Amino acid sequence: MNPYLAEFLGTAILVIFGNGVVANVVLSRTKGNNGGWIVITAGWGFGVYVGVFCSMPFSGAHLNPAVTVGLAAAGDFAWSQVSGYLLAQMLGGLMGGALVFVFYREHFKATPDPDAKMACFCTSPNIRNIPQAFFCEAFGTFLLILPLFLMTPVKFALPSGTEGSEVILGLGTLGALPVALLVFAIGLSLGGTTGYAINPARDLGPRLAHALLPVPGKRDSDWAYAWVPVAGPLLGALIAAGIHGWIM
């Protein structure tokens, strides 16, 4: 598969599962209504897992502009491919947000709260202090990117049947599980302030979908805040790349 297509599909899958669990919890008359924060964070973690193992063999499964920029800043990814990856991720986020709306359309109609409807697309701070929200997004993303740099793949050496030789086996798709658990942990521990976007494509793409789609009874898309979950994660990723280079 073309790596740009893989990034598009992986990000769309991630957002469908992630924003889908938000919709299931916050929209009226769903089976999961009022399921709570743990349900949301678990859904996002599982969404990351599915998106990563679907796209990993083809693109490396960045699915996040902060990951792409962080890897490029660390010298582990070609800058010439960055713009293509970012565009694919943003379009994937837009598509994922649109499909969640189509799936839950009747429940959007049944929900009177415009803030709840917007939460199914993008993030917002529970206490509106923009500098603090920026710090939270940058710090949350830092604690995503630095552990990603430091994670080492688990491998097993097995006898090959030929004397003196071994076969090295990895975990396959289970290798994506640590990333999912990391996102789950960030949501549980650090997601309570801003909703832990920690991914510009996860926020800006669906925010554009919210602005463009005929969501019944919707509010504005809060463009005054929209730069925070974009710039904050990118800064956090760059700091993580710099610190990783220094400590290693």
Short précis:
The chain is built from 10 helices and 2 strands; from the N terminus they run H-H-H-H-H-H-H-E-E-H-H-H. The protein is mainly α and 248 residues long.
Q: What attributes characterize this protein structure?
A:
two-stranded antiparallel sheet, Glycerol uptake facilitator protein, single chain, mainly alpha, 248 residues, globular
Descriptive account of the structure:
Helix content is 64%, strand content 3%. The chain is built from 10 helices and 2 strands. It has a two-stranded antiparallel ribbon with strand order 1-2. A hairpin with a 6-residue loop joins β1 and β2. The chain is globular and about 60 Å long.
What is the CATH architecture assignment?
Up-down Bundle
What fraction of residues sit in β-strands?
A: under 5%
CATH superfamily: Glycerol uptake facilitator protein
Task: Report how far the terminal alpha carbons are from each other.
Answer: 33 Å
CATH class: Mainly Alpha
Please, what is the average pLDDT? 93
Secondary structure blueprint with pairings:
Layout: H1 3-26, H2 37-59, H3 65-73, H4 82-103, H5 105-110, H6 114-119, H7 130-150, E1 156-159, E2 166-169, H8 177-190, H9 200-212, H10 228-247
Antiparallel strand pairs: 1-2
Helix pairs in contact: 1-2, 1-4, 2-8, 3-4, 3-10, 4-9, 7-8, 7-10, 9-10
